[in-house]
From TrEMBL:
Belongs to the UPF0056 (MarC) family. It holds the Pfam family MarC. Coiled coil: none annotated. It is found in: Cell membrane. It is a multi-pass membrane protein. The chain crosses the membrane at residues 6-27, 39-62, 68-89, 109-129, 144-167, 179-200. Its main location: membrane. Keywords: Cell membrane, Membrane, Transmembrane, Transmembrane helix. The keyword Transmembrane applies. This is UPF0056 membrane protein. PANTHER family: UPF0056 MEMBRANE PROTEIN YHCE.
Amino acid sequence: MSDWISSFVFFFAVIDPVGTLPVFIAVTAQHAEWQKRKIAILAVLVAAGILMFFLLAGQYLLETIGVPLSAFQVAGGVVLFLFALTMIFGEGKPEQEMEIVQEGHETAIFPLAVPSIASPGAMLAAVVLTDNYRFDPIHQVKTATAMLAVLGIVLLILLTANWIFRWIGNAGASIVSRVMGLILASVATTNVLLGIQQFFSV
């Protein structure tokens, strides 16, 4: 159960469901309520498909091109750590992705499904948390269910976006994003240390 919770928290941090709210509001501002629901469902389904692909085939792709997972884990941890720093000290996820929306790319696929929900960090997490050499199939299934649970929360949040956003506003979404950044920085550091330990067999 503790492993499932850890995976859930990790995916919650990298996906940052609350941080997707302002993006969704901007993307769907001119749409009717039924269209907003359709966009939310489509975005989550596309993101789920992308993340499941990385979860199932990501490690095989790495091995095909000769990249050991330990190296990918260290590189991924560094990238996640830098991403976390931008969430904490720089522009939060809402501000970054709002800029993408303002450039006119207003579709359920971009920027909602990618990179808001299926973020680079989430793709890295899907690969690292299902390492075939560290985790058995049962653990990998649990990781998949944790990821899908987070995506379920994303869908719920998007379907109730107007009500939630009226309650927390831009400032609230930004605060949540920064808290998630702090959690993500801790997880990223752990991944780097585990990758180094695995690579050098210490």
